Amino acid sequence: MAETPEYCLDYDKNPAFANIRHSEETRIRLIDIQPDIRFMAKRFGTTLPSFDDSEEHASMKILRASAPALLVAAALQGSGAHAVSLEEAITQTLVSNPQAQASYNRYQASQETVKAARGGYLPTLDWKAGIGHERLDNPITEKAGTKDKDFRPKENALTLNQNLFDGLSTTNEYRKTKELQHGRKEQLRTKAESLALEVADVYLKLLENRRQVTLSKNNLASHERIYKLIQQRSDQGVANQSDLYQIEGRLARARANLISARNNLEDSETQYLRLVNQAADDLIMPHLDEQTLPTDLEQALTIALQDHPAIHSSNYDLSASQYGYDQTRSAFLPTVDLSLSQRWDKDINGLKGRHEDTMAMLTMKYNLFHGGSDSARRQEAAYRVEESRAMQQDTQRMIKETLRIAWAAMENLSAEEPYLKKHMDSSAQTVKAYQKQFELGKRTLLDLLDSENENFQAQRAYTTAIHRSLFARYRVLNGLGHLMQQLNIGLPSNWQIVDS
């Protein structure tokens, strides 16, 4: 077999020519794809002679002669377009996705809650002013001769109040809100990890489905070519009518496969648009360094329980509920306040004239009975602690389960991939062998079609496997809480995140 030219239009080497395959690989004659080639040639000023439907080898020479110019033109065309990497797609998602924005605003709200709790340590300063109408009838007004006389009292008061002791309620409230703030930060990281994995899934499915459409087009072209040959032989009385019926059925199936592949592609494009908030243009097949993965499942589980943000979030929630329980004890303790006030009144209590009053007061308040409400709230807080503890344990189990499933998928898909590759390579060799045997009259066109159909199915299976295998590795990294870290992606720079 002649050596493949270095400019062979191979999908893996030249994605711009995904619809054009070397005939020695798929046996699709160039006559079936000449509109695509002529479109490229016309666009870049390259002239091609007509393809002869009866001379496949001649058409191959035409393509080989024109391929370098077409490849250079395609490269120049591609240089002006920006291919979106997986990392860029994830970054765009975090900036624009509503779920990410909701989590960020939830975190921002928790920051304000901390500020509100911190305010409990500071004094309160109140200004009070009032004017009204008053008529008094008491011994003071009777003695002063102002009985039943109308007054227009005016009040002005400035009061400074500082709590000195509240049973540590303010302290525990501040500590609780601080823990909740840390928890919301970890929830934000968890949501970012989840969205990153979702984008990776859609990104890889989009690449896979684009490839599946290309394979389906090639498969349809093969069926149409063989259908024409069998139809010609049937018209000449050489082929059986049953052969024509069979190829018609398979041709219909090939067209249905292409429609299904396009439908899957459109679904992926829609999902990508929803997540990333921009249409999918050129995408780049991601590469993952295997060194970033743990050596075994046990190591992976240990790392996940230490590093996963969902674990950290559940720990903070438990700590916050414990501070909430401690806070309920303050209801059984007295409160002590220091109050400083200055009053400027006029015509107060039936006495005409200005009245000024300066007062400093140290007060203690101690509740003796509250209808059992304080005891009930303390018991409620105790149940909240146990609820948080149970949620913490559930989170740990969920992380372990997710990681075990992802690890099993990664191992099984990795083990399956070489066999699917072998099947694809063998089926491709079978197509070549059947083609030679057909030229010698030892194989029928239907035999050739069977081999090409098996090759098509093998390529589809392998395409799915390589994309799913890579996604399984991303799932493992997500199970560790390291997906964004390994992709060198941080939270958006405009997010105001307070370090713990």
TrEMBL record:
UniProt keyword Transport, yes or no: yes
SUPFAM superfamilies for the chain: Outer membrane efflux proteins (OEP)
Pfam families: OEP (PF02321)
Coiled coil stretches, renumbered: 251-278
GO MF term (any one): efflux transmembrane transporter activity
Keywords, comma-separated and alphabetical: Cell outer membrane, Coiled coil, Membrane, Transmembrane, Transmembrane beta strand, Transport
Entry-linked InterPro entries: OMP_efflux, T1SS_OMP_TolC, TolC-like
GO cellular component: cell outer membrane; efflux pump complex
Membrane as UniProt keyword: yes
Cellular compartments annotated: Cell outer membrane
Taxonomic superkingdom: Bacteria
Listed NCBIfam families: type_I_sec_TolC
PANTHER family membership: OUTER MEMBRANE EFFLUX PROTEIN (PTHR30026:SF22), OUTER MEMBRANE PROTEIN TOLC (PTHR30026)
Record family assignment: Belongs to the outer membrane factor (OMF) (TC 1.B.17) family.
Protein name: Outer membrane protein component LapE
The species this protein was found in: Endozoicomonas montiporae CL-33
